[in-house]
Amino acid sequence: MRSLDEIAATLDEQGRTDQLPFMREMLELQGQSLLVESRADKTCDTINLTGCNRQMTDTVHLVGARCTGRFHGGCQAYCLLFFNESWLEPTSERRSRSDVADGIRHDADNADNADNVDNSDARAELEDRLARFADAGPDTYRCQATQLLEASEPLTGRSHYLDDLRNRNVPIGRFAKGMAYLAVNRYQRFSQEHLPARLRFRGGRRLPDLEGQVVDGDFPVTAALDLQPGELVEVRGKDEIARTLDADRRNRGLRFDEEMLNLCGKRGRVLFRVERLIDEKSGRMLRVKKDLYVVAGMVGCEGVYHRLCTRGMIGMMREAWLRRVA
Predict the structure, then answer these.
(1) 231-277 pLDDT, tens per residue?
(2) Is 291 helix (H, G, I), strand (E, B) or coil?
(3) Does this model's pTM top 0.85?
């Protein structure tokens, strides 16, 4: 990241560059060398839940650079941060992914040390400006997620797929999977609208073929795991999870996204239980009363069903989707 003076020069009075907020949590990364994870040329609209239909310019994601929520009421959404290129500068230092956080990490310890990096007047002034913008009212906040529509534009055309290839924005295997699913689902939609039932593949259902089996809200009762940070867990299989979902693939309100199927059978350690989340549409802080966990390494969205979006949303887990591993 550039110096605070250089970054501050790019920001408006509300601490934004091209409507994208620079967040106080980013100051925790000051002085670190980080790898570019991907370009953020396109991203999902998680405010209106309309899929990957927004585009951005001169913006990237960095490996492991997720919001700790430290200055946004302790929000635990753990979003991958957006960085305007004007906030960054290249370094000659050679690093690999193994040298930095791979996937999800919890940076509470690093956050506690961030206060010692720079206590200058410039830092204090910038922090005050960012804090005023972030605090939108009683128990209400602004962040990159709540301001996403202002910082992006509607995604148009299909050239963004060629850009993904040209920029090596996604691995070639993921690109091939995304294109295959896109082609099949377009045919499925066409068959539902224009073909008789006998010519439809699996009734014209879109991929992945995951159907919830819960009817009338009669969710199966499972033994409470009461998982603790550090415990090793495994994500249950597709058929087991289907038995916990309703027709909208939800378990007591939480949707099991089709992208999360890639997590089935994977193991990881519990990072924390989710208790606080910012509602991206209203900015209000929500208190989570039901079991909800973040597990290390469980990036729930690879974008293969969402136009190769690189936002890397984490897969938040219900206990019913996990099993404890001895």
Answers:
(1) 999 999 999 999 999 999 999 999 999 999 999 999 999 999 999 99
(2) coil
(3) yes
Buried b / exposed e along 59-77 (16+ C-beta atoms within 10 A): bbbbbbbbbbbbbbbebbb
How many CB atoms are located within 10 Å of the residue 121 CB? 7
> Does residue 45 sit within a domain?
yes
* pLDDT at res. 71: 97
User: Which residue matches tokens 């997590």?
Assistant: 263
Question: Does 26 reside within a domain?
Answer: yes
The Cα–Cα gap between 281 and 303 comes to: 22
For residue 286, how many other CB atoms are within 10 A of its CB? 13
Give the domain range for residue 50: 4-154
**92 pLDDT exceeds 90?**
no
- Given CA atoms 258, 259, 262, 263 in this order, what sign does their dihedral have? negative
105 occurs within a structural domain: yes
In a domain, 171, yes or no: yes
Q: 224: how many CB neighbours lie within 10 A of its CB? A: 8
Claim to verify: residue 134 and residue 169 sit in the same structural domain: no
Check whether residue 76 and residue 180 sit in a common domain.
no
One domain, residues 143 and 9: yes
